[in-house]
Amino acid sequence: MVSSFEVEVFYDGACPLCVREIGWLRRLDRQHRIRFTDITLEAFDAGALGVSWHALMDRIHGRLAVGTMLEGVEVFRRLYAAVGFRRLARATRLPGISQLLDLTYRLFAKNRLKLTGRCSNDACILPGTAARPTEAPRSSGEC
Fold first, then answer.
1. Which of 26, 96, 136, 141 has a Cα at 20 to 30 A from 127?
2. 116-127: per-residue pLDDT in tens?
3. 8-state DSSP, 49
4. pLDDT tens digit string along 53-91?
5. What's the DSSP call for residue 40?
6. Has this prediction a pTM greater than 0.90?
7. d(Cα 139, Cα 125) in Å, to the nearest integer?
8. Could you please report the per-residue DSSP string of 86-139?
9. Among candidates 105, 97, 44, 110, which has minimal Cα distance to 70?
């Protein structure tokens, strides 16, 4: 079966920073190598992926056309490679750079809701949590 995408990204459509980056990637994706999936839409079913919705909110996830799931910085590498930044993506695998990016991303992910203005009084609200009763909401999440 031939897939119509190279990489699929599962993103938080309620995150202003995430939506901005997804918009930028959409404009660069002239070859339609990326499938963009907003996990905050009511019709989205995380169970079909074998990953919980809250796990998708905690760290960015992606899926290759062959079905392999990815998460974290590797998703960004694949997205940037898909839009033509393959050299940059390769450079992010260099020793030192790779570890720095992983650390920076983990810090961002842990604080993403606060950084994007979605927390008040030390409580962060995840979009669509009322429609996803299988797990208790967490206080962090990624694009």
1. 26
2. 777 776 667 666
3. G
4. 999 999 999 999 999 999 999 999 999 999 999 999 999
5. T
6. no
7. 7
8. HHHHHHTTSTTHHHHHHHHHHHHHHHHHHHTT-EETTEE--TTGGG-TTS---S
9. 105
